[in-house]
Design brief:
Elements lengths: L1 H41 L8 H9 L3 H95 L4 E6 L2 E7 L8 H21 L3 E2 L5 H13 L6 H9 L2 H13 L4 H10 L4
Antiparallel strand pairs: 1-2, 1-3
Helix pairs in contact: 1-3, 3-4, 4-7, 5-7
């Protein structure tokens, strides 16, 4: 803003100065054309030459002589106007350079301001993104904690606490999970995982037929969805879920408990799936 005011004041001063130069040259030109007749008619003439003789001599001049006379009369004013034109043009070029410099400075300042604004917008966008990610992680963590609690209760008191197999029409429980008072959810699920490994080993190495556990598929889908959402959870929650083997339990519920392998078919399926 201050540069713009200075530029405007300087331009006005230059305009006044150019006008002054024009008026000075105009005054000199007018003085010159008034001085020439004075010099012609009021200077002392040689003896025997009158004013009228001088006028007659002017009328009898040859065209070349008239040209020389006019050149002599107009050369000084023309030179003065040429000098004035050069001075005015140099001042105009100087003004243009100053205006161009001011425009470049304004453009640089605008570029700096835009860069600062872009940096500020980027920082604000990053902050909003971090807040959104944190909110999403909080929701995912809350959902994961609720799922873990419900799954632990299903293990303790629901349909997953017992796994029964049929061998020669005899039903045998190979997994009978017993709840421990005041046991944490992580410890409960970890014990269930370990017993599940032993149960799946019994089923597929002795070609047993497992009685379907109807809640197994539902919980397998729930736990698989939980694993798929790991990237949206906080690192602490992911570490907690990985420590109890949620992904392993989800696979076991789908591939070992819900399905009912028999005979060689069970042996083939057991060979395709990892052992505990």
């Amino acid at each position: 803003m201050d540069d713009a005011k200075d530029g405007g004041g300087s331009s006005m001063d230059q305009s006044v100065e150019r006008s002054r130069i024009v008026w000075v040259v105009f005054a000199l030109t007018l003085f010159w054309f008034l001085a020439v007749p004075f010099l012609v008619f009021y200077t002392e003439l040689p003896a025997g030459v009158g004013r009228w003789d001088l006028i007659q001599r002017l009328g009898a001049m040859q065209p070349s002589e008239v040209g020389d006379l006019l050149a002599g009369m107009f050369a000084p004013p023309a030179f003065m106007w040429l000098v004035a034109t050069v001075i005015i043009q140099s001042q105009e070029l100087s003004d243009q350079r100053k205006e161009l410099r001011a425009a470049n400075l304004a453009a640089d300042r605008q570029a700096v301001a835009m860069a600062k604004q872009a940096t500020s917008s980027e920082a604000q966008t990053r902050l909003l993104l971090e807040q959104a990610n944190q909110q999403r992680a909080d929701r995912s963590d809350a959902q994961a904690n609720g799922t873990i609690t419900a799954f632990a209760n299903e293990i303790r008191y629901g349909g997953l606490n017992t796994l029964t197999v049929v061998d020669d029409d005899e039903y045998t429980d190979i997994l009978a999970f017993t709840a421990v008072p005041n046991e944490s959810e992580e410890s409960c699920i970890a014990r269930f995982r370990d017993q599940l490994r032993e149960a799946q080993h019994e089923i597929f190495h002795h070609h047993l037929q497992a009685v379907p556990v109807y809640s197994a598929r539902r919980w397998s889908n729930i736990l698989n969805n939980l694993v798929a959402d790991f990237e949206m959870m906080s690192p602490g929650t992911v570490q907690r879920l990985e420590a109890v083997g949620i992904e392993e339990i989800a696979g076991a519920l789908r591939h070992w408990i819900f399905q009912k392998p028999t005979g060689d078919e069970g042996s083939e399926e057991g060979s395709e799936c990892p052992s505990g």
